[in-house]
């Protein structure tokens, strides 16, 4: 299915006057969410940048029904909303819009439980790879080597693969997405919203102040993450795993751009040695190998 | 008109709560086990499995999520219930405040239990009393029948004052003790408790932009909101009185509203306490009356809102003995609350029954005697 972005709904859900930083990747993603779900979604938002960028109450810079909720509670609150709607006969989607910290760290137990229960929730984790709202501290989604204020010499541990962990919960739909590929993200939201049960989308969303790059480069940075293979676009739909373009072509390692093209755009990797960059490339390749084998295995079981 | 039948039956406190919840026709129930609460949600899951109750039953991974689920449900317009105790209640702490400040009309049973270490499942009131400043209304039953009645009333209170309501019942002493109780006909409960208006306090609906909880443009908006919660609790007092009368007309059971008064006419001394052991305290009061001591008892049915005016009415008495089944580094919680109205000079605060230690009618009698004869030297005595 190809989607022409100029044919997408014109109604704006992200309004002027919101308080996001210039070039915020998360806001680009949120705009696509509005286009895809429009009037159908009720959003739960845990403590995060998303809780702040709405602007100042009682007004809101986001043209959607939003319930702001405690940091660790979003998946559970969204479950309550979807169950209430079910009992009251209200049609709509209970959607979580949460950061990586609220999802993979403090909220993880609740996310895992909602997945295990197969609660009827669309959970979207926008991944800016750190706790940005509190001023760039590491999260379990911060990549190895990246600078944050609590990893001043670079993070020592690997990035947690939250999407694969949720896939292992045997939920109907898990996908990764990237704000540089809005049609792909749009299609995935649409697909997820057709399915009853727990749907998870991991959205890659660069953050200029947190990653130390110029706000004009957000989409460029996001695209480079995919082109170099550092972030992989894939989709798991009812048992079948597949790579999505352009990542599907990058299974062939020779077609990936050198990782340095992605890293050099950002200040958070400026301290890395060549040796460390080489290690990162090897780790990325191991991830590809793993996913490739996984894709082949799920295909065989069809 | 068809005659409505009241069912006389024997139930534990927990099953009485479960029956009350069932008759309140909730939409969403969340459950996480903790002794001595667990049989409430077990019973509810059974009602649903048997088709006797149509509701979503959500098994969660923690109490924090148990409250988060019913919070989401209540904010989306559902009638919602959960239950917990002790460590479970404390694990909810952040959600308790969030729910109260959202004016979410949730009802939660709190089966009181002591806190560790050491691990101890027996009765104490520290757990429920610790949430008294969170914005929840906090009630405490004294019998299995009242556990039922208070639970039904809690939904009405929550949905008229827009405050979440915690209904307390003593762990094991009520939760697992069988008493004969009367279940009103469903029609009577339906009359007392009409379906929830899903549009209040706000309407969370697809296609209707509204934002709840985002940063205020002026802190005074937030401050005003907090003051409104205080006002809501003052309103709730009035609702509790009128509810009590109305419920009394429908079922024949009136409790006195915020407090139950026992033998207070012509009394020179009074006992103040809450929960199941007030039954033993009453027995002690009867014994003392037989000995010629002019004494009565005031049982607190609610500690939030706090019955300030009712307690103030004891000001003319010679001595007020407050029993706390809790202990803090500053003494007893109810003792301090009552002393804040009457002054310390008037009050002797007896801390007893801690960690589930048995405290019988005769123990009450002795402690009360010591207190009114001024044989305790401190105003706070931990037995
Ligand atoms: C219980 C609790 N602990 C800590 C905080 C402080 N806090 C607010 S937002 C945040 C970080 C959020 O990080 P993430 O989920 O990655 O979202 P981002 O800010 O990056 O958008 C933290 C730690 C909080 N609000 N609640
Ligand atoms: S700190 Fe980053 S994620 Fe947060 S609003 Fe600014 S750009 Fe967006």
Q: Give the end-to-end Cα distance of chain A, rounded to a whole number of Å.
A: 22 Å
Global geometry of chain A: globular
Largest sheet of chain B, in brief, is: 7 strands, mixed
**Strand order in the sheet with the most strands of chain A:** 2-1-3-4-6-5-7-8
**Assembly state here?**
heterodimer
Order of helices and strands of chain B: EHEHEHEHHEHEHEEHEHEEHEEHEHEHE
The gross shape of chain B turns out to be globular
Helical percent range of chain A?
A: 25-40%
> What is the mean predicted local confidence, pLDDT of chain A?
96
Unreliable residue stretches of chain A: none
Going by helix content, strand content and strand pairing, the class of chain A is alpha/beta
Distance between the termini of chain B: 57 Å
| Alpha carbon gyration radius of chain A | 18 Å
Largest sheet of chain A: 8 strands, mixed
Low-confidence parts of chain B lasting 5 or more residues at pLDDT below 50?
none
- The H/E string of chain A reads HEHEHEHHEHEHEHHEEHH
List keywords for this structure.
heterodimer, A: 302 residues, alpha/beta, eight-stranded mixed sheet, 11 helices, 15% strand, globular, B: 383 residues, seven-stranded mixed sheet, 13 helices, 20% strand, binds thiamine diphosphate, binds iron/sulfur cluster
Overall description:
The complex is a heterodimer of chains A (302) and B (383). Chain A contains eleven helices and eight strands. Chain A has 302 residues and is an alpha/beta fold. In chain A, strand 1 (41-46), helix 2 and strand 2 form a beta-alpha-beta unit. The radius of gyration of chain A is 18 Å and the shape is globular. Chain B has 383 residues and is α/β, with parallel strands linked by helices. Chain B is 40% helix and 20% strand. Chain B is built from 13 helices and 16 strands. Chain B has helices at residues 13-23, 38-49, 63-75, 86-91, 93-101, 126-129, 144-161, 186-192, 219-251, 278-290, 308-312, 333-342, 361-372; strands at residues 7-12, 28-31, 56-59, 80-84, 107-112, 137-140, 165-170, 178-183, 210-212, 259-262, 269-273, 295-300, 302-304, 319-324, 347-351, 380-382. In chain B, helix 1 (13-23) packs parallel to helix 7 and helix 10 (278-290) crosses helix 13 (361-372). The chains are: A alpha/beta (302), B alpha/beta (383). Chains A and B meet through strand 1, strand 2, helix 3 and helix 5 of A and strand 3, helix 3, helix 5 and strand 9 of B. Strand 2 of chain A pairs parallel with strand 9 of chain B. Residues 20-21, 24, 26, 49, 53, 128, 132, 207-210 of chain A line the site of iron/sulfur cluster (SF4).
